[in-house]
Amino acid sequence: MADQLHLTVKRCLERYRFFSLKQPLVVAVSTGVDSMTLLHVLGSLLSADQLVVAHVNHHLRAQSQQEEQFLRQQCQQMGVRLYVDQWENHPQHGIENAARQERYRFFAKVMHETKAAYLLTAHHENDLAETMLMKLLRTGDATATVGIREARPFANGQLLRPLLRVTKKSLVEYARVHQLKWYEDATNQEDMTLRNRVRHHYLPEWERENPRVVDHLLKFHDQLTELLTMKDDIVSQLMTRIVHNGQLDITSYQQQVPVIRHCLLYRWVNDQGMFALQEQRSHQIDQFLCNQQSPSSTMMISNDLQLIKNYQQAELKKVQNLPTKNQKVSDFMVKFDHWYTRPAGDQWGIFSHPQERTIAELWLTGGQLPLRVRTWRPTDRIRLKSGHHQAIRRVLINQKVPLNQRQQQLVVVDRFDQVLWLIGHKTTWLDRQQVRNQRYEKRYFCQK
Questions:
Q1: What does pTM read for this prediction?
Q2: Which residue from 10, 194, 324, 329 has the least number of CB within 10 angstroms?
Q3: Which parts form a coiled-coil structure per UniProt (predicted)?
Q4: Each residue of 325-381: pLDDT tens digit?
């Protein structure tokens, strides 16, 4: 049994190439039988400089100080480094989840300080079965129901669980054979938490129906993991074709079947570190993206996150980074015979003589000067050759200007605030009018 446990842990480290690196690993130790057994096995496999112990004193039980002192003595005897976190600021509610967050925050800090590439925890086979039942009860989500995986990215390295296919019974037997000392957490016998209720009541009830229920849960875990891995591979291949520089190609997205679209949405949102997408929200976003009657629109998908659909592309942006309708991008007087550069890199100017890239010639009177540049407004219109007027908003829509760029469009206006030029898109139509005592000058509107 001892040899088998050593071999199990060693093979896990070999699978993830620990022995080829010259970095230490961090092992999380609570002083319970599981983690004390793992520490003992690692102590026989690794040298002292390869091993770092991390312990969180939760200050929730009277024996917490005793456990910490015991572990300090153990690490001193082994000659390994020990890092201890003192967690004393407890929330009034959700203490179990808060404790877990504190532990992993501390473990990540220790990995960073010691330049460790791996964090090892002592989760075992029974933990896996319990977690699967808990996730099934709480979420019904297939990805969550997989439960605990042997490895996952964590901090600046990986989190490994080498005991995931070892039973609790085997760990206790190993500890007794090697006369290891450990501490039992008295709260583990209480039914205050869901895990304890699953451990003491729900799972034993299932085992009375079928003693092999844990084996069946593990088999289900393996099959579900394989299916999810296959799904992830398919989605990864599609993402390279559908997402470019963080933007979603709407046409390619709409060509996918609904189940694939859901997977693509989930990956797209999470890859940008935005938030975990809920199923109901996913369906709402999918309908929004597939609505061909509204090719350019926006949708708030959280308090600070906006989904922007611009005809063929969609992107996610934080609200605070978006310009508001009343935000002034520019407001200045135009200097003739001078080139101005826009953020996109192109240039524009109004000249007294024709230039290589003249796009319009307008007759202006002295009374219309000075000309000014500002951001467009919802009431702005531009004069057409027919004498009618067209709203600037309609010009931008017709020319398929992306919604997130419309708010920053600039217009050139005269002294009377009449729009002469929607820069980069369209000029007004002004004929030279024969008015007595009125002097006209031709100006050349240019862009390059």
A1: 0.62
A2: 324
A3: none
A4: 444 455 788 888 888 877 666 788 999 888 878 888 888 877 778 888 988 888 889
